[in-house]
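Q: I'm building a small set of examples for a reading group on sequence design. Run inverse folding on the following structure and report the sequence directly after it, with nothing in between.
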């Protein structure tokens, strides 16, 4: 499942249909969410089940998208997270945020991974080019 969050849907609606300015972030960031997150939380922009930054070396990573085709685009390069210095747990969702700081900002889009990924201490997580593909449908 992939979806724009309520925040992004409302911002786009207001921008297009109500002539309300929407200024996108200069940089977008990929965030990771654990298996305890739910789609309802992510849709609402609740960030409480993001991987913890406490002694873990987790940090959101910048992500750049190519030009869209039919309302969808993919990341233009690999996205590599630093090696975990503590177990991150089971990753079930990714999200795109307008803030570099974990647990803050607005979640714009999220997706459930095709299979959960367990990140233990010492593991490095990487998403290849063209593997993160938000769509507005």
């Amino acid at each position: 499942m992939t979806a724009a969050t309520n925040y992004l849907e409302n911002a786009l609606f207001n921008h297009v249909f109500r002539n309300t300015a929407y200024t996108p972030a200069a940089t977008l960031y990929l965030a990771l969410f654990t298996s305890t997150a739910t789609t309802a939380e992510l849709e609402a922009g609740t960030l409480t089940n993001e991987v913890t930054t406490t002694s873990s070396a987790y940090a959101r990573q910048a992500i750049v998208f190519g030009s869209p085709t039919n309302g969808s685009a993919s990341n233009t390069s690999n996205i590599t997270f630093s090696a975990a210095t503590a177990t991150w747990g089971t990753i079930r969702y990714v999200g795109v945020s307008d803030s570099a700081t974990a647990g803050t900002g607005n979640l714009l889009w999220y997706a459930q991974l095709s299979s959960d990924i367990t990140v233990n201490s010492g593991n490095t997580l990487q998403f290849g080019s063209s593997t993160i593909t938000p769509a507005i449908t």
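Residues 6-17 form the longest helix (12 residues).
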